[in-house]
Amino acid sequence: MLEPADRAELMPLLALYGLTERERAITELLVEGLGTEEISTQLRISRHTLRDYVKAIFGKVGVCSRPELTAAPAQQSLAA
After folding, report:
1. Considering the entire predicted model, what is its pTM?
2. Percent helix / strand / coil, the chain, rounded to 5
């Protein structure tokens, strides 16, 4: 059973994917379970801009959904 990665596990692994600082910040919020509206408000960006970031993050990490994104660091550490 896969469980969400905690912040300590998440951040070093995300560096391997070449995420920008902004993409890493968004990824942290996604993994925490925040919704699109909450993240866009917190970061003061539009929902459309956020969706573009999320698409880029998914592409770099090789996932298609938020649950997959949350599980990606655990899967990566298992492969290592």
Report:
1. 0.76
2. 75, 0, 25
